[in-house]
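testing teh design pipeline on a random one, pls ignore if ur not involved
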């Protein structure tokens, strides 16, 4: 066989003849001869890999036209594959023949053939272990056929992982490093075997592997398949591997976020504990400690809110997600923590810092002052001439809405504490009616002042007043205040069930009230606030309203 002068001379014909002679090593004679030559064969395969790894598929096949026949035969010989690192070397040689961008039908067919060989090497279930002679040999080693091939796969995966990790730390040594195309090919070969348990360490290593290339070296098919298997809980991966997957492949991050929303929409939100558990299990709050992931997830939530016309259940989901994100963010190592501006780059930072402060982090006696501080800064931002469009206004509103704990506390403070009502009413009026001009917002505030100073004998008139409110946003605002009056005012508990049921019957606010109640229950469960009567009442109301939503 003619060879280029730059290619080392390899005893290629000799080993091809041996491979043909051995077949699948089904006779005692072929098994003995195979075992006798295994050390020399492994050395030959290593030399072959070193020769072709920088040539590219086309040149490699030109230099060694029968290389496919040789590798194909050796891959089906269990004694060759089971010896030391021969299995891994065979895989790397096959990777060198894989065309990352096939140009014709021949290359496409070659790629398909290579993929099938890799599946065969990686999956013990594809081995034909029924041959009597082979099974006898394996039994003599003290293994069942299943155990033997299981150990074979584990050893091969371990060897690949070690080589990839060593290469990661030795990236500057160009001659010894694994080329990006080889890693790309290996990722493609893993696609049909993603759910194979023994392959998990290799998946993790590939997801964390970057090499020296500025471009993505893992195939999109591999990244999509891993993400799909993870979302369907067919595989389990360390958090670091999942975060790396989402950072390097944004379509997977988008799919994971939409998958979470679909999952939450499909279940009855009986409590926010269930919502919080599902959100936390998705790993999205933890992954959002990276600003790039947070901003993308936040944008998807924002779009979902707009598409559902501000549905209260979507807003509640976003608020729980934001709380869980803050928990993950605050638990980050201070040296590794990104500044808040990285997550909210276009907002007034003092306002962001005020909203990010969790209520339970502050004394309850300071809550009314903190709410007023938020309201004053927000009002100043709204009246700033820079807020010149509805888009700018929506962005500010969405920031405030994400931190809904402070909005619920603002409504409670009107009834529970000696607080200056105007700033708090302005904050709530902005949240429920963000598009209103200053004069309209003032009218909304004045219209709801009566509820702040409500007495029980005035309650019936106030309840009926809700039905006369034409604007949906005003109706929701008034319903929020009335519900809080019943929950937190002296004597309100006595008639709460009757009045709240009446409100939800005569208005289209069942979901609004329901979500307010589950938010209240969730906050009490996590804040340590002592209010057993209110918690009991909230739970009773939730049971009555469940059928309505």
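output:
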């Amino acid at each position: 066989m003619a060879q280029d002068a730059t290619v080392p001379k390899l005893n290629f014909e000799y080993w091809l003849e041996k491979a043909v002679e051995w077949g699948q090593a089904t006779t005692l004679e072929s098994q003995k001869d195979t075992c006798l030559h295994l050390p020399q064969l492994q050395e030959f395969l290593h030399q072959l890999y070193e020769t072709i790894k920088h040539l590219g598929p086309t040149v490699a096949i030109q230099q060694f036209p029968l290389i496919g026949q040789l590798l194909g035969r050796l891959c089906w010989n269990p004694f060759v594959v089971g010896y030391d690192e021969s299995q891994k070397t065979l895989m790397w040689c096959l990777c060198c023949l894989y065309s990352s961008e096939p140009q014709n039908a021949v290359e496409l067919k070659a790629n398909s053939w290579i993929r099938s060989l890799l599946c065969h090497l990686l999956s013990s279930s594809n081995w034909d272990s029924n041959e009597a002679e082979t099974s006898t040999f394996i039994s003599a080693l003290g293994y069942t056929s299943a155990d033997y091939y299981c150990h074979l796969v584990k050893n091969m995966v371990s060897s690949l992982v070690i080589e990839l990790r060593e290469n990661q730390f030795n990236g500057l040594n160009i001659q010894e490093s694994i080329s990006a195309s080889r890693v790309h090919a290996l990722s493609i070969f893993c696609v049909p075997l993603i759910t194979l348990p023994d392959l998990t360490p290799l998946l993790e290593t590939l997801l964390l592997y970057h090499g020296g290339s500025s471009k993505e070296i893992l195939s999109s098919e591999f990244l999509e398949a891993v993400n799909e298997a993870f979302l369907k809980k067919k595989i389990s991966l360390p958090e670091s591997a999942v975060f790396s997957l989402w950072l390097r492949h944004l379509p997977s991050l988008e799919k994971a976020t939409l998958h979470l929303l679909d999952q939450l929409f499909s279940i009855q939100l009986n409590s926010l504990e269930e919502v919080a558990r599902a959100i936390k299990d998705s790993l999205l709050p933890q992954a959002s400690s990276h600003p790039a992931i947070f901003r993308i997830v936040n944008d998807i939530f924002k779009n979902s809110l707009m598409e559902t016309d501000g549905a209260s259940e979507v807003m509640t989901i976003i608020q729980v997600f934001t709380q869980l994100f803050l928990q993950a963010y605050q638990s980050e190592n201070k040296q590794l923590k990104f500044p808040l501006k990285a997550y909210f780059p276009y907002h007034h930072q003092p306002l962001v810092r005020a909203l990010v402060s969790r209520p339970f982090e502050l004394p309850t006696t300071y809550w009314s002052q903190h709410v007023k501080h938020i309201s004053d800064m927000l009002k100043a931002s709204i009246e700033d001439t820079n807020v010149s469009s509805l888009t700018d206004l929506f962005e500010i509103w969405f920031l405030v809405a994400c931190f809904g704990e402070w909005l619920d506390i603002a409504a409670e403070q009107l009834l529970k504490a000696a607080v200056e009502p105007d700033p708090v009413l302005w904050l709530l009026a902005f949240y429920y009616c963000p598009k209103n001009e200053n004069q309209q917002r003032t009218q909304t505030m004045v219209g709801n002042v009566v509820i702040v100073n409500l007495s029980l004998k005035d309650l019936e008139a106030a309840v009926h007043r809700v039905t006369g409110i034409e604007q949906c946003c005003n109706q929701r605002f008034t319903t929020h205040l009335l519900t809080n009056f019943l929950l937190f005012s002296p004597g309100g508990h006595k008639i709460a069930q009757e009045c709240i049921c009446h409100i939800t019957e005569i208005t289209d606010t069942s979901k609004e009230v329901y979500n307010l109640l589950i938010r209240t229950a969730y906050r009490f469960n996590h804040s340590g606030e002592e209010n057993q009567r209110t918690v009991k009442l909230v739970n009773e109301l939730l049971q009555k309203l469940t059928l309505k939503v």
